[in-house]
C-alpha cells in the first residue's frame, strides 16, 4: 500500500508569539506575566514560540529550557531591534544587544533572528524621532550594516537573520522593501514577511512571495481591519495608537487572506516558520487565549 505524498503545506511550521498576548516590552504592568503566556500559548495548541522582547521570557537558558519543555514548546526565533541606517557609529551598541539575544536564541536550538528596523516615530507616543525617508547615504549604511550583521550572526552564532518590514520604520512599503532586498546579498540577508505590516503599508504579500520567494526565510501571520486601516491612514495615526484602536484584527476577519499567502509560501517548497502575531498592546489579560484558540483552528482549516 503506497502512502499519499505529503502536502507542501506540511513543511510550514505554525507558532505564536508574545505579541499575540499583548507583549511589546520586556517589563510592563499592562502585559500578562510570562508564565501565563507560556501556559496559554500551549493550551491554544501551538508548539512553536518566539522569545519576544529580550527580558520578557527568562534569559537564563537553563530556566527557559525547563519552562518551555515542560509545556511542550520549542523556540523558533529571537528578535532584535536595530538602527543600522545610522552607520558604523552605532555598530558596537547594536552588537551588544544582538549578541545577548543571539546567544539565548542559539541556546534554545532556534536558527533564526528576526531583525526589526528602528522606528522613525515613537510607537508609544507617536512623537516623530527622525524623517520618514532615508537619504541615499543612509540607505547605503542600512544595507551595508545589515549585511555585516547577517555575516557576524551567522559566523558567531550559526543563525540566519530575517529582516522584518514594519510600519513606522524605513522598511515598510513595497518600494522600500524591494529597494532593501535588491540592495542586499541574499546569502546574508533573508526576509521575514509580516503579512499584516505589509498590508498596513499597502503591499501585496502574495505578489511579494511570488517575486522574491528566494528571499523569504520566515513568515509572520497577521491581518489588518481594512475599515480601521483606512481611517488611521487618512488621519496619519501612528502605529502604536492604531493598534490600540484595533487595526490588527483576528483572522479571518481582515486582510490579506491568509490561505493564499500560505499557498504561495508552500509553492516555494521549503521549510518555513509561520508565526501568528496579532498586535494587541494594550489588551485585557483574558482576551488573548480565546482568540489564539480560534486562530489556531482557522489555520488548521487552511491546511497548516
From TrEMBL:
* Protein origin, superkingdom: Bacteria
Gene3D superfamilies per UniProt: Divalent-metal-dependent TIM barrel enzymes
**One Pfam family matching this protein:** AP_endonuc_2
Domain Xylose isomerase-like TIM barrel: where? Answer: 38-300
Q: Where are the transmembrane segments?
A: none
Protein name (database record): 2-keto-myo-inositol dehydratase
Amino acid at each position: 500500500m503506497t502512502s499519499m505524498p505529503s502536502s507542501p503545506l506540511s513543511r510550514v511550521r505554525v507558532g505564536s508569539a508574545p505579541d499575540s498576548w499583548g507583549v511589546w516590552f520586556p517589563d510592563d504592568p499592562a502585559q500578562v506575566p510570562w508564565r501565563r503566556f507560556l501556559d496559554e500559548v500551549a493550551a491554544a495548541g501551538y508548539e512553536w514560540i518566539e522569545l519576544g522582547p529580550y527580558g520578557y521570557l527568562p534569559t537564563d537558558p537553563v530556566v527557559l529550557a525547563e519552562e518551555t519543555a515542560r509545556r511542550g514548546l520549542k523556540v523558533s526565533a529571537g528578535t532584535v531591534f536595530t538602527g543600522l541606517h545610522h552607520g558604523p557609529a552605532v555598530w558596537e551598541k547594536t552588537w551588544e544587544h544582538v549578541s545577548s539575544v543571539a546567544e539565548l536564541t542559539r541556546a534554545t536550538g532556534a536558527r533564526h533572528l528576526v531583525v526589526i528596523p528602528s522606528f522613525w516615530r515613537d510607537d508609544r507616543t507617536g512623537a516623530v524621532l527622525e524623517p520618514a525617508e532615508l537619504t541615499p547615504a543612509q540607505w547605503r549604511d542600512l544595507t551595508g550594516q545589515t549585511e555585516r550583521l547577517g555575516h557576524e550572526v551567522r559566523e558567531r552564532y550559526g543563525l540566519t537573520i530575517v529582516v522584518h518590514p514594519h510600519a513606522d520604520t524605513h522598511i515598510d512599503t513595497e518600494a522600500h522593501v524591494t529597494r532593501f532586498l535588491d540592495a542586499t546579498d541574499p546569502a546574508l540577508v533573508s526576509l521575514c514577511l509580516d503579512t499584516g505590516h505589509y498590508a498596513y503599508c499597502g503591499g501585496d504579500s502574495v505578489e511579494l512571495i511570488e517575486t522574491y520567494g528566494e528571499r523569504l526565510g520566515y513568515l509572520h501571520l497577521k491581518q489588518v481591519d481594512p475599515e480601521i486601516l483606512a481611517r488611521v491612514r487618512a488621519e496619519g495615526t501612528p502605529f502604536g495608537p492604531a493598534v490600540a484602536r484595533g487595526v490588527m484584527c483576528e483572522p479571518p476577519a481582515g486582510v490579506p487572506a491568509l490561505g493564499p499567502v500560505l499557498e504561495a509560501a508552500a509553492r516555494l517548497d521549503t521549510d518555513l516558520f509561520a508565526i501568528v502575531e496579532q498586535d494587541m498592546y494594550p489588551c485585557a489579560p483574558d482576551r488573548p487565549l480565546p482568540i489564539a484558540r480560534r486562530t489556531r483552528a482557522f489555520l488548521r482549516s487552511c491546511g497548516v
